Amino acid sequence: MQCTLHLLPKFFETIGTWKDNFVEMGRKTVIRRLAKYLPLSIEFQTAAALDGMAEAGKDQNIGSTIIDGEFTVMPEEVAGIQADADGVIESPGTSATDQQAIGYSKPQILDMLLKAKTADKLDEAAALIESLPSQADRAELNAKYEALNAELQQ
User: Per DSSP, what are the bridge partners of residue 82?
Assistant: First the structure.
C-alpha cells in the first residue's frame, strides 16, 4: 500500500488520527468495507458495532449487561455430600439409576413396561427395575421384561 499524504485531499491532512496513523487507518477502512461482504463471527460483529457507536459518540451500553443477584458460597463438603470435578453432587450410596428411579414403585414400573410399544421404551422402563429395594420385585419385573421383550422381537 504505497500512498503518501500529499496525494490525499486536504481534509485528511487536518484530521489528527489520519495524519498521525495513516497506514493503520487505511487498513481499518479496508477491513470495515470488506466486512460488509464476509461472514463474520459474533465477536467481530459486536466489536464493529461498538466501534461504530464510539465513532458516532453514542453510548455503548457496556455496563447494562451486569446482572445483580444474591448467592451463597457452599463449602466443599457438606454433611457427607461431595461434588465431583464438574460440580455434580451425589450423596454416598446413590447411583445414577437410583436417582433416575426415585419415586417409582413396582406398580408404576410394571405399568411402564406394559405400555412400552418399542424396544427403546421397554429398555428405559427396565432400567428402573434395579432401583427397587425388594429382590423379589426385581426378579418378577425382570421376568416380565424378558417376556415383553421376546414379544416385541417377533
Answer: 77, 90
Structural element, H or E, at residue 78: strand 77-78
User: Has this prediction a pTM greater than 0.70?
Assistant: no
Q: Within 10 Å of residue 50's Cβ, how many Cβ atoms? A: 14
Torsion angle of C-alpha atoms 103, 109, 111, 113, degrees rounded to 10: 150
What amino acid is encoded at 58 in this protein? K
Residue with cell 436417582: 99
The closest of 77, 78, 51, 50 to 64, measured between CA atoms, is 50
Query: Radius of gyration of the chain from Cα atoms?
Result: 33
Q: For 118, which DSSP code?
A: S
Query: Going by C-beta distance under 8 Å and a sequence separation of 6 or more, which residues neighbour residue 134?
Result: 106
Amino acid symbol at 66 = I
List pLDDT tens digits, range 18-38: 778 888 888 988 888 887 787
Question: Nearest Cα to 128, choosing from 93, 102, 101, 105?
Answer: 101
